[in-house]
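does this look right to u?? zinc ion version
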Amino acid sequence: MKAAVYENFQGKIQVMDVPIPKPMSHGVLLKIKATGMCLSDWHGWIGHDPDIILPHVPGHELAGEIVETGKDVINFKVGDRVTVPFVGGCGSCYQCHSGNHQVCDNQSQPGFTHWGSFAEYMILNHADLNLVKLPDEINDETASILGCRFITSFRAVVEQGNLKGGEFVAVHGCGGVGLSAIMIAHASGAQVIAVDINDDALELAENLGAVITINSLRSLDVVDEVKEFTKGGAHLSIDALGHQQTCFNSIANLRKRGKHIQVGLMTGDDKHPSIPMDQVIAEELEILGSHGMQAFKYGEMLKMIQSGKLRPELLIERTISLDQSVDLLPKMDQFKNSGVTIINSF
Ligand SMILES: [Zn+2]
Ligand SMILES: [Zn+2]
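got this back:
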């Protein structure tokens, strides 16, 4: 099969002919139909992920068709169209037993702990636990962008954020994650304030339902602006970027007893940011994370997509081939655009 392979971190990525992998007894072999390109794939290629064993195939946001099942798989069959969350549970640890596969102690992450979806075929483990059947109305391209940024934002807004209609939500950072959060919060009846440094991204945010946008490069004080507009602060605020400043602002712009959700990954120098803990205590703020979403929780989100309440396809900026992706991946940190790039020809 064809796959995009790198043999060294920060080395050349090449489309090569490699053997088709064999699924485990609890797993499946998928023919990949579409896969999203995500900054996490770039982090993996740079060498930021200790789980990656070289040579490696990236890719963790995908939709595909089952072409082979392991003997222990009960709920899925050859021909099923499926997708997966980027974190796969093991089914046997404490977290999985409590229904929290998204923080499984022995998690598998396609494109990190094993070869991913920048290939014609890939395997997935513990299929009965981790796979999600796709309704006919949701096409492969749309489905392929759900498994990482979109589900993490959905869980942030709906589950962790427990958002109520009419509440104010501030979203800091309007890339794929932030725009997803804006769309989901808007569909849930909230009033969204979008913050970014890029006017094009803010325009997209407005199109997706933000009631007000703030360009943080031009703003004298983002926190003051949010507090003024919301008459006291946001009920829910999301750092969708993963940066010391956006994390700080997202906590500082909350109203009393408000909730901050960290969605943007904190890496490198931003790993341990300083936060206004004095405010967290005095105003009883809550700070939570969101790390993907369990497969069994997809139902509500898929229904909202089927009914047109959520339209993740609006986040797709372009579709490319596997051959084109190998030149793009090393440059992903320089992407100026906010939309998502999908590989849909292999
Ligand atoms: Zn991703
Ligand atoms: Zn587990």
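The longest strand covers residues 28-37. idk if thats expected tbh
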